[in-house]
Amino acid sequence: MSLAVTGIGELVTNDPHLGIVHDAAIVVEGDRIAWIGPSSQAPAADSRLDADGAAVLPGFVDSHAHLIFAGDRAAEFGARMAGEAYTGGGIRTTVAATRAASDDDLRRNARRLVGEALRQGTTTIEIKSGYGLSVPEEARSLRLAAEIVEETTFLGAHVVPAEYAGRADDYVDLVRSEMLEAVTPYAKWVDVFCERGAFDADQARAILTAGAKRGLGLRLHANQLGPGPGVRLAVELGAASADHCTHLDDGDIAALSGSDTVATLLPGAEFSTRSPYPDARRLLDAGVTVALATDCNPGSSYTSSMPFCIALAVREMRMTPAEAVFAATAGGAAALRRDDLGIVRVGARADLIVLDAPSHLHLAYRPGVPLIRTILHNGVPQ
Known about the structure:
Blueprint: E1 2-12, E2 20-29, E3 32-38, E4 47-50, E5 55-58, E6 60-62, H1 74-81, H2 91-100, H3 103-119, E7 122-128, H4 135-148, E8 151-157, H5 168-183, E9 189-194, H6 201-213, E10 217-222, H7 230-236, E11 241-244, H8 250-257, E12 262-265, H9 267-273, H10 280-285, E13 290-292, H11 306-316, H12 321-335, E14 352-355, H13 362-365, E15 372-377, E16 380-381
Parallel strand pairs: 1-4, 1-5, 6-7, 7-8, 8-9, 9-10, 10-11, 11-12, 12-13
Antiparallel strand pairs: 1-2, 2-3, 5-14, 14-15, 15-16
C-alpha cells in the first residue's frame, strides 16, 4: 500500500543539515519513503494524508533511555528539589524494585513508556538494562527490551550492586564474562557508567573491550557528575556515543571534534537534578555531532518527551531551534549508527511526524504544548 502526504508547508529533511523544503509532498510505500517533491506533483497513491500547511519532520530518535524498571523515585525527586544533592545512589533503590517485579510488570511498564514517547513523536527509542545487576536479571531485562525495540543496550556496569560492595573488580570480572555471555543474544550495544562512585576508566575499558569482542557496539555514560576520563575513553575506543558530556574541558572537546563519536546530551537529567547544563554551543562550534535524548529513567530524568528536551536545549544549552531539531532526529540516528532514521530521503524508513504548527520553530517556541498532530511509524499512521 502507498500513502501520499501532501500539503506540507515546511518539510524538514535533514538532507543535508536541516534541509527545509516548502510546499512539499512525500509518498510512502510500505515502510519506506518512495518519493519526495512539490505537493502539486505528488503521484497517485492508494491513500492520501493532507498536512494542510503544517510542518513535517522525521520522527524523533531517542538514543538513550532506561525503560526496564519497576517503581518510581518521586520521593527522591522531592528531596532534590528541597536541596539535597544528586549522587546517583538511588539506582540501587530501583534495582531492588526491578528484581522483585514480574516479567509482565516490567514488560507492561516499558510498553507504556514506549507508547507515551511515540505519542510525543518518538519513533525510535533505545532501551538499556542496568537495573538488574545480576546475570539472570540483566539477561531478563534485555530479553524483555528486545521484545519491544530494535536498539538494546547492556548496562550491567551501571553501579556496583550491594552484594558486591567493596569488591568492584570482582563485579567487573562477572560483567565482562558470565553476564556478558548471557546477554549477548539480546543486546546490540554495551555501555558503562564511567563516573566517580561507579566505574573508573580501567574498569570501563575492560568491559567495553570485552563487549566489542562479542560484536557489540560501544556507548559510554561520560562526564555527567564531574570532569573525568569518560569522553576521551569513548573516543579512544571508537564508541558510537559519549552520553551526558556535562563537564567538558578543551581536551575533551578536541577529542570529540576529531572523531565520529557523537556527544549525546540529556538535558532532562540536568533539569531533574538541578545540575549545570552542558554547553552545546562549544561542541557545535567545534564541529562535534550532537544528539539529544531523554535519558528516561525513574530517578534522574523521568520524562519521555523529546519536544521537552528540544525546548530545554534551546533555552538552556545555547542551541538554535534548527540545531536542536537536528540533534533530536539525525543526531540520535548518528548516535545509533543508523542512516535510515532521522532523515527524509528516498529509501529511508517512513517515520514522520506532522506538527500542529507551521514550522519546526514551534517545538521550542511553544514549550509544553502538545504539537504532534499525526505520526507515521514504519509508514503506518498512528
